[in-house]
Automatic annotation (TrEMBL):
Any Pfam family: YaeQ
SUPFAM superfamilies membership: Restriction endonuclease-like
Superkingdom classification of source: Bacteria
Protein known as: YaeQ family protein
Organism encoding this protein: Rubrivivax gelatinosus
Length: 185
């Protein structure tokens, strides 16, 4: 018998001073049986960092992700169906990134985990031609701490200012410092 996904509900109060954007989002996320709560929370963080005002033109959506190898963790489509933004989570190989860059106007990858420096050293020279690719590293200790906020029903406040992100609930807060890996500027 196949294991079923676990459903998580999240209410995000987003205050992004870097963009300036203030919005509330009610989200339903499915935790795949092979997925960790750390990955689930990184997906939620990616949503917060890429979401717009929440209007119909924004259209940022969670996909089937791990259940479908042809889909990213999140994507944004135009109202006519054109793929505007492909958002990956984890340590993806260059073939998948190249395929995503060919399909979408913009590709963003949030890499996390202790092995990111090793993965990045192997990948860095292979992606130079991918002009619409953006890669961010989320420090492992910070994403592990973020995972402690996971609950089946979450009310989270997300604040972004000067490149730093604070995610918190009524009891605790976690600070994250995403680091740009690509493109280098």
């Amino acid at each position: 018998m196949a294991l079923k996904s676990t459903i998580y509900k999240a209410t995000l109060a987003l205050a992004d001073m870097d963009r300036p954007l203030y919005a509330d989002h009610s989200l339903t996320l499915a935790l795949h049986p092979s997925e960790t709560e750390e990955r689930l929370m990184v997906r939620l963080l990616a949503f917060a960092l890429q979401a717009g005002a929440g209007d119909s033109a924004d259209n940022l959506q969670f996909t089937r992700g791990l259940s479908d190898s042809d889909e990213p963790a999140l994507w944004q489509r135009d109202l006519d169906g054109r793929l505007r933004h492909w958002i990956e989570i984890g340590q993806t190989d260059e073939r998948r990134l190249a395929k995503a860059c060919g399909r979408a106007d913009r590709v963003t990858l949030y890499a996390y985990g202790n092995s990111v420096p090793i993965w990045w050293a192997a990948l860095q020279g292979k992606i130079t031609r991918l002009r619409n690719l953006h890669i961010w590293q989320l420090p492992a200790a910070q994403t592990q701490e973020l995972a402690t906020l996971a609950a089946r029903s979450m009310q989270l406040q997300v604040t972004v200012q000067d490149g730093h992100v604070w995610v918190g609930n009524a009891h605790t807060s976690v600070e994250l410092s995403p680091q740009r890996l690509w493109p280098t500027e």
